[in-house]
Design brief:
Blueprint: E1 12-18, H1 23-27, H2 40-47, H3 50-54, E2 58-63, H4 67-75, E3 83-84, H5 101-107, H6 113-116, H7 124-139, E4 143-149, H8 151-161
Helix pairs in contact: 2-4, 7-8
């Protein structure tokens, strides 16, 4: 009688990586669904990840479908066969796409994406649902997993990962600097 397969005892380790700089991230413009490329500096930021990420054996690599995340993944040395995960996409900023928070606050004092949502785009509950779907998928896996995503979604995801509401993502920050 064959023996039962050994259960996987390798812990789940997530590596959450924000895409490199774009023209809009440099100028502070909200970039949700607009599919723009990395700047040359953003490409350099991604390449600087190679030595760190090359030392890690990844069982799975997931990336947002947007080119800035896919470019970062490829330039960081993990682009051979990443799985495109639509739930890793940035917030849909709707009418606020391309605007700066300071400009939005001129008409909506105190606004943050985490509390105010975006007319014609997503609100916190919709982003929470996406993060929760992704978490459920990841919890069925084990080993090292790379996730290439975007600033505000990644902070929202991190908040949900620890069981907090998406609004707590406002207290987290993913830097573009390396």
């Amino acid at each position: 009688m064959p023996s039962d397969p050994k259960p996987h005892t390798e812990p789940l380790m997530l590596y959450l990586i924000r895409h490199g700089e774009t023209e809009w991230s440099l100028s502070g413009r909200h970039t949700g669904r607009t599919d723009i490329a990395l700047t040359p500096h953003g490409e350099s930021q991604a390449r600087r990840l190679v030595p760190t990420l090359a030392s890690i054996q990844f069982e799975h690599v997931f990336t947002s479908p947007l080119q800035r995340a896919r470019q970062t993944c490829a330039l960081a040395g993990l682009g051979a066969s990443p799985e495109i995960a639509p739930d890793l996409a940035e917030w849909d900023y709707g009418e606020y796409e391309g605007q700066r928070s300071s400009d939005i606050r001129m008409t909506r004092p105190g606004w943050t994406v985490y509390r105010g949502g975006c007319p014609g785009g997503e609100d916190a509950s919709q982003v929470s649902d996406r993060a929760d779907r992704l978490i459920a998928k990841l919890q069925a896996l084990c080993g090292n997993i790379a996730l290439f995503s975007h600033g505000q979604f990644a902070c929202s995801f991190a908040a949900r990962w620890i069981g907090s509401p998406v609004s707590q993502g406002q207290h987290l920050m993913l830097a573009l600097h390396l």
